[in-house]
């Protein structure tokens, strides 16, 4: 332990008391890590995804200020390129969805290729009993191919309605439909409802209400008087979710 | 010209007729290029920008299907990192804003550093007589520092209101305010109004209406019956804007 000194700057006569201290601190650290169960939210992307569908979800989900709240962009490559050419680095592989608390699928032209790629689909082993699973727009096609929409009502983007119906799904003209832990949203801005559902279930209504308010137009859902409340979204995360 | 053959596959006795043909085609090509005046839309980013403020604008503006419509993300670095850690490559330097038809400023924690950086501010030489200039949320602080909001009404994000007022700007609780060619929007989702304003002015009302409709929630502004119209956003660009 070399030149370890005590608080008075005096060299310790006996380093064993420090050895014990470090040992105790290391044990406490491990205990703390175990008690802080991470809430893991994953967003699945692929090439030719729709930019706003990823980034509206990503931005909203990242506004939750809880220390154990983690949002990850997952894909089968180190980076995926959106329909408009934006390259986005992924944080991990698709297989990481399998132990996430929430798994959200983006949409875009690329979904047509994904639902035809059995090797890609095989990487998912999702469990709607334990995980919150959702999609925006044509992401519903992936949920259907994964067998998550059987005998369920769902929504999607207008240009994907017929194809989704061909998978035996009853498609309803609504922005958001949740069946237990599986939800679909249709129309880019409906990802607010999808994210609100995930946040409310995993972090509490306080956060979903505040976060959804924080992106509304000024004078139309967000007001100058909200300043102090909004500032809570910019402070360091707290270790516990504020109760509903 | 080597082995040039005519339509019957016969080797030409006299290559001069082909030389003339190629010369004429090259001239026509140049003429066509000159007549297709590019509409250049630039979005200015910087480190610690708010993700949704860039990507909602980027996505909407890229939905315009006109061949001469170009959207560029500009910054002072090859890539900028958002407030949540997303790295986005830029398409060019800030100075490129000076000949753009529209210049839009994003917002985020990073605006505070930008408005204190005189070297960065000096790179802009914008002309509100010839360019459409706008901002979302705290981007209004940059417009103010560039002298574009003097004696004008403006809007911004609740947490930036006091600072914007300290620059002598009268801040109004509205989602969108346009003064001639200079506009401010407040609250992330108000970038719909900002982009709609740019698109209507530079591409026509047909495109702004269709594009804004295309991102609404299903059943709340976007309907399954809109499928055929929405498909126009996924075809190859046309060479001319559809008239209002």
What would your notes on this structure say?
Two copies of one chain form a homodimer. Chain A has helices at residues 16-35, 51-61, 111-114, 118-121, 139-145, 161-166, 191-202, 205-214, 227-230; strands spanning 39-44, 69-75, 79-81, 87-89, 92-93, 102-105, 132-136, 153-154, 170-171, 176-179, 182-185. Chain A has one domain: Class I glutamine amidotransferase (GATase) domain (Rossmann fold). In chain A, 32% of the residues lie in helices and 17% in strands. With 244 residues, chain A is α/β, with parallel strands linked by helices. In chain A, strand 1, helix 2 (51-61) and strand 2 form a beta-alpha-beta unit. The longest helix of chain A is centred in the N-terminal third of the chain and has 20 residues, at 16-35. Chains A and B meet through helix 2 and strand 4 of A and helix 2 and strand 4 of B.
Output the structural class of chain A.
alpha/beta
What oligomeric arrangement do these chains adopt?
homodimer
Largest interface: A-B, 51 and 51 residues
- Give the ordered list of helices and strands of chain A: HEHEEEEEHHEHEHEEEHHH
Query: What about the largest sheet of chain A?
Result: 7 strands, mixed
Number of strands of chain A: 11
Which architecture of chain A per CATH?
3-Layer(aba) Sandwich
Tally of alpha and pi helices of chain A: 9
Helical residue percent of chain A?
25-40%
The average pLDDT score of chain A comes to: 88
Q: Tell me, briefly, the overall form of chain A.
A: globular
User: Termini separation of chain A (Å)?
Assistant: 48 Å
As a percent range, the share of strand residues of chain A is 15-25%
Q: For the record, what is the CATH homologous superfamily label of chain A? A: Class I glutamine amidotransferase (GATase) domain
Q: Rg of chain A, please?
A: 22 Å
CATH class of chain A: Alpha Beta
Count of all domains of chain A: 1
Low-confidence stretches of chain A: 1-13, 31-35, 240-244
Q: Could you tell me the CATH topology label of chain A.
A: Rossmann fold
Strand order of the largest sheet of chain A: 5-2-1-6-7-11-10
